[in-house]
# Entry
Amino acid sequence: MGKKEAKKEEYYEKNGYHLYKREVKLKSGKSQIIYFFSKRKPRSGKRCALPEGYIVRINKRSGMPYLRKK
# Structure
């Protein structure tokens, strides 16, 4: 009998904010993934890791993190 390996997913967190992603449908009919930070669990969206090609910055005024392309 083989061992079952628990798949541990990595999530991104900064200053108590967790990174989430959600797929939205645009008016043109195309689908696009949006990323956002939240302290609480949102109505829709899944926690995710930092996407490739992005860096995290902190808004000086609010202290909230946001994504920026490299």
